[in-house]
């Protein structure tokens, strides 16, 4: 488990059940594209603990929205209009969880230095060769 009942209360001040934390972790795993068993970096596990805590509290107030909301950017009903900020995966993922995911090591950009293509030294003056 990424998070515990005590962690959720420590980070958020809210009380949730272990079952809700398990459901929240499942959503976080889908969001990041990795299962718990494949993550070994302690820094990532700490961030995932917080993400799961935020998601669990978000779901405690909005679980129906998370599981039953139609995937749309705007809804109209008479005079009322509701628009979702889909950049933050609303209304499915807790906004704090999305922001915390930016700190995950496997979500950051990577660069790779390859070196020279050929392993012989370059000539000093290629025009006179």
Please tell me about this protein's structure.
This protein has helices spanning 5-12, 18-32, 42-68, 95-101; strands spanning 74-77, 80-83. The chain has 129 residues and is mainly alpha-helical. The chain has a two-stranded antiparallel sheet. The longest helix is centred in the middle third of the chain and has 27 residues, at 42-68. It is flat, with a radius of gyration of 22 Å. It starts with a helix and ends in a 28-residue tail after the last helix.
Gist of the model:
The chain is mainly α and 129 residues long.
Q: List how many beta strands DSSP finds.
A: 2
Question: Could you estimate the helical fraction of the residues in percent?
Answer: 40-55%
Mean pLDDT: 81
Tell me the domain tally.
Answer: 1
End-to-end separation in angstroms reads 65 Å
Number of helices: 4
Low-confidence stretches: none
Strands in their spatial order, largest beta sheet: 1-2
Order of helices and strands: HHHEEH
Shape: flat
Structural class: mainly alpha
What does the radius of gyration come to? 22 Å
Most strands sheet: 2 strands, antiparallel
Share in β-strands: 5-15%
């Amino acid at each position: 488990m990424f998070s515990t009942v005590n962690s959720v209360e420590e980070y958020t001040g809210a009380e949730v059940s272990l079952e809700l934390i398990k459901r929240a972790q499942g959503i976080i795993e889908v969001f990041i594209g990795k299962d718990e068993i494949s993550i070994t970096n302690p820094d990532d596990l700490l961030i995932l603990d917080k993400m799961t805590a935020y998601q669990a509290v978000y779901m405690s107030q909005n679980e129906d929205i998370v599981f039953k909301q139609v995937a749309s950017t705007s809804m109209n009903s008479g005079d009322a209009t509701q628009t979702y900020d889909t950049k933050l995966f609303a209304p499915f993922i807790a906004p704090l969880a999305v922001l915390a995911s930016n700190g995950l090591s496997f979500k950051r950009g990577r660069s790779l230095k390859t070196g020279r293509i050929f392993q012989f030294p370059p000539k000093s003056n290629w025009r006179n060769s």
